[in-house]
Amino acid sequence: MSMQSTMNNPQGAYAIFPTIPSVKDLTEVLYGGKRFGNHVDEVWPNLFIGDMQTAKDKYNLKRLGITHILNAAEGTWNNVDTGAGYYGDMDVVYYGVEAEDVATFDLSQHFSSAARFIEETLSNPQNKLLVHCVMGRSRSATLFLAYLMICESMTVVDAIEHVKRRRRIIPNWGFLKQLRELDMQLLQQRDSTEPR
Asked: Which residues form the Tyrosine specific protein phosphatases domain (predicted)?
């Protein structure tokens, strides 16, 4: 079965990969994690997930040694309106993703490009990356979870388990559904490339 056919018929993909958890199961996995919240947490070596307050605090960004910023809530309406110009007096590389934190928004269209940015940033051990959105819980967490799945070969459950031990995250159910679909795609790709 091709990847395209599973995307058009997701039920077919579920039959192929019955071990992939439902969105409800993923929600239950999420709520077993860290109960309190910080403005910023290091969730991977040299990678921090944070909120709008962290993103706008240039002093703290310098103190943390942040060299790269991925804003998962770029834009002016109900987002973090910083942009590359906001950091003009700092030596940082900025990457912005215009995304709404609503279940109907297709954040998966940014999974590959965000994962590439994260991977390129972390390829230099001197770099430190802040991935943020308004609260640092949904959009930013979802993009980092996708990175772990795409670049670190984690399953969606493994990725969530890893991050939730370090930061309280709450991707909306639409983003969880998109991560679940990514998990199916990646499992299918790995299955098709393994020797039989």
From this structure: 109-167
Q: How far apart are CA 138 and CA 179, in angstroms?
A: 12
pLDDT in tens, 152-170: 999 999 999 999 999 999 9
- Domain membership flag for residue 190: no
Residue of 133, 159, 163, 182 marked catalytic: 133
What is the rounded CA–CA span in Å between residue 196 and residue 185?
A: 19
**Average pLDDT estimate for 136-150:** 98
Is residue 148 within 8 Å of residue 142, measured between CB atoms?
Answer: no
- How many distinct structural domains can be found in the chain? 1
Pull the structure tokens for residue 4.
């395209």
Domain assignment of residue 184, yes or no: no
Q: What is the DSSP letter of 85?
A: H
Is 133 an active-site residue?
yes
- pLDDT band of 35, cuts 50, 70, 90: low
Of the candidates 162, 131, 166, 163, which has an alpha carbon nearest to the alpha carbon of residue 38?
166
Residue 129 has pLDDT above 60, yes or no: yes
Are the C-beta atoms of residues 167 and 36 closer than 8 Å to each other? no
Kindly state whether residue 3 falls inside one of the protein's structural domains: no
Give me the CATH number covering residue 87. Answer: 3.90.190.10
